[in-house]
Amino acid sequence: MFFIRLTRPICGLTIGSYSNNKEGRLATWIKVLSLLLVIQVGLIAWFRSRSDDLSAYDSRQPLLSLDISGVDKVAIEEKGKEPLVMTRQNGGWVLPAAQRFPVSPTRFREFTEKLLGAKLSWPVGRTKVAAKQLKVSDDTYERKIRFFKDGEAVGVVFLGSSPAFRKVHARRGGDDTIYSLNFNVYEARTNPADWYDRSLLNLSRKEVARIDMGAYAVKQDAKDFIVEGLAPDEKTDVEGMRKLVSGITSIGFEDVLGKDGKDMFDKGERVLEYAVEIRDGSRLQYTVVSPQGEDYYILKASGYPYYFKVRKSKLDEVRNTVRDQLVKKTTESDNES
Question: What residue numbers bound the domain in which 269 lies?
Fold first, then answer.
């Protein structure tokens, strides 16, 4: 009897506890599943809300879908400096603030291709706070670059801090998204001299017909340049001629003088004058002066309104070349040949 009386309450307790635990676990699972459903619905809603922006993250998309051939003005701004402005002129680009000096076509092409063609990265920020921190906000930036057409901006780019070597944070005007581009901010320089077409004074040897140095002249025959008026026992020194022609056809310059260039030129001492005749019949006149108290020469070339600052050593090679350095006596073997 004792065993029966003892087991009844125990059995009753066991069955009741099992039932309660089962209901508790069921309730817990319901709560967990409900939470997972809420999270799933939230993720779906979030992804749908972001679907419109997915195209902005396409790594194949360029920074700006802009046809540079339709742009007629580019402005680069840097805090604390005068903006650099380049405008289209006669199929090329010039610097209005630097006497409309021609911009290097190679330099301009490389700049625009690298910047406009830079592919977008995954966004690194989208808030105004991030824009200030990365220096790409409307008021805080390393460079602000604007592209114009008919007086209206058709593209704006803000360049900021550098996250790595040859990389820069960038933001498009009117867009909060910030990217990391493969571009060096120093390629967007605001010093006009960095954009000069340094090849402006260069001439092709093939287009030069004659060089008149005053005391003597050289001309190009069917094979190469020779000294005019050679005596029967004279011939052109090939190495001496090569140096002279090279010095004249590839002058190069250090800088372009500003408004005081003409005054310095007029007051300077003339040290060299020569002319180059082109095969098309045109004639270029060059005048070189030594300005007072300066360690460089000023070169004035006909056809250009500019006064070029040139290293003395460069033009002294041409200036100090005399006829005797360009000729040598023939030998019997030369006459036989």
Answer: 205-332
